[in-house]
Amino acid sequence: MRVAIINAVFPPEPVVSAQIGRDLAEELTLRGVATQVVCPFPTRSLGVNYSASLLESGIVNESAVDGYAIARVPSFTAPASNLIGRLRESWSFGRQSCAFLSRQSVQPDVIYANTWPLMAQHAIAAYALRRKIPLVLHIQDVYPESWLNKIPRSAAMFWGAILRRLEKRIVHRATRLVVVSESMRRLYNRDRGLPLNRLYLCHNWQDEGPFSVLSDSRAARQAYAVPEDRFTFLYLGNIGPVAGVEELILAFGVAAVEGAQLVIVGDGSRKGACMELAAKMNLAEVRFVSDPEARNVARLQSMADVCLLPQRKGAGQSSIPSKLSAYLFSAKPIIGVLDRGSDTAACICAAGCGWVEEPGEVDELSKRMRQVIETPTQDLRQMGENGRMYGLEHFSRQLGALRLTEIVMGAGLVYSAVNSTLQSVKISK
Questions:
Q1: How far is residue 195's CA from residue 187's CA, in Å, rounded to a whole number?
Q2: What mean pLDDT comes out for the span 189-194?
Q3: Which of 57, 111, 134, 155 could form a disulfide with 415 if both were Cys (CB 3.0 to 4.6 A apart)?
């Protein structure tokens, strides 16, 4: 069997989808599957400097690692959050990926695509249909809904109908659709009309290896110049418009608890605004830390007494953020600022590892912060351990990579079986 993995991001980029693509490639290779990765030159996260050898433009950079091939295509990239740039990036990568595949003397038996919506998805789905190649399409978030929430209502009404028709056409062309949450699976069945036997649930995972030995919290605080004698609320992730980090700062300011600090780790388009808000509120105990190295996540999170997981209202209804599994593996209790009906909130409750507050309720969140500080240390440790056990059971690399590999290989085997049956029928006639 030959599998082409088309991934919009790939290591060394420290993005969960990049790690998923790499883990899938490694698992397929272990099973003797000839695997070709197609990806752009690395640009995520914004501000990270990569080796010059990985940033050449105008040529396809081909290499091999761990038994599988990697082709970096010279598509346009837009690491900064800009609508026009992101649309161009999606269109360019889809076109370049299809062009690369079309030049291959032997076509893949299966295409797996975890790529930018919607233009890249459309190009790849159309290519797979023309070549009669089964397509496994991995959906990380529901589009166009996720995008429509960020634009004015009048524009959303106009573009919504057009983009929904395009998205529906894309997903119906996929042989199998991989979704990351149960609510997303229901949505594609109910709203897009996809039968359940073409919808496959596979939670995003993290490599639990770096969390196997929990880091020394005191040493980590010293390394990042974070005071050791403070109860620490910690947020780690992208500081963007969907994250709602400003709400954490507001609630921390309202809580006004002595002996506590809020540590915000990461970068993003809203970081400057968050820093200005903390300064305006005169919150000296709100501290910002930058460290783009993905391998340091476990160490960074060890500084926390409690981890914070915020999302704007409505943003988390159909997906589970990757930081949830990282928080769980760190054995830290979690305060989720989430829609109570979301899958993420359900995970926190099912694990018994924290609390859930509704977005926009700053006073309630501040009350929860005060309550958590007064919670006995032993109770917090037990909640963290509950989360760790739940994470290993549901979000581990071993289980996730195995599940996704079976989905991808299964698509090829079913397609081959159907073709063989059709050929047999033709011969008998």
A1: 11
A2: 94
A3: 134
Q: List, in sequence order, every beta strand (DSSP E) within 115-154.
A: 135-138
Question: Edge-to-edge strands of the sheet including 2-7?
Answer: 61-65, 68-73, 34-40, 2-7, 110-114, 135-138, 176-179, 199-201
CB contact at 8 A, 308 and 265: no
Does CATH number 3.40.50.2000 belong to domain 2-205+396-428? yes
Q: Where in the chain is the domain with CATH 3.40.50.2000?
A: 2-205+396-428, 213-393
Residue pair 354/335 in contact by the 8 Å Cβ criterion: yes
Alpha-carbon distance of 328 to 29, in angstroms, equals: 29
Cβ proximity of 188 and 179 under 8 Å: yes
Distance CA 260, CA 252 (A): 9
Say if strands 68-73 and 61-65 run parallel, antiparallel, or are unpaired.
Answer: antiparallel
Q: Please, which pLDDT band fits residue 194 given cuts at 50, 70 and 90?
A: very high
Which H or E run includes 38?
strand 34-40
Side-chain-side CA neighbours of residue 143 (13 Å): 20
Percent of the chain residues past pLDDT 90, beyond the cut: 67
Question: Pairing state of beta strands 334-337 and 306-310?
Answer: parallel
Residue positions counted in the chain: 429
Write down the residue that tokens 């038994």 correspond to: 67
pLDDT, tens digit (0-9, with 9 covering 90-100), for 303-355: 999 999 998 887 666 678 888 999 999 999 999 999 988 999 999 999 999 99
Tokens coding 243: 């994250």
CATH code given to domain 213-393: 3.40.50.2000
pLDDT single digits (tens) 262-287: 999 988 889 999 999 999 999 999 99
Question: What is the DSSP secondary-structure string of 48-113?
Answer: ----GGG---SS-EEEEETTEEEEEE------S--HHHHHHHHHHHHHHHHHHHHT-SS--SEEEE
> Do residues 329 and 208 touch, judged by C-beta distance below 8 A?
yes
**Residue pLDDT, tens place only, 210-229:** 888 777 888 989 988 899 99
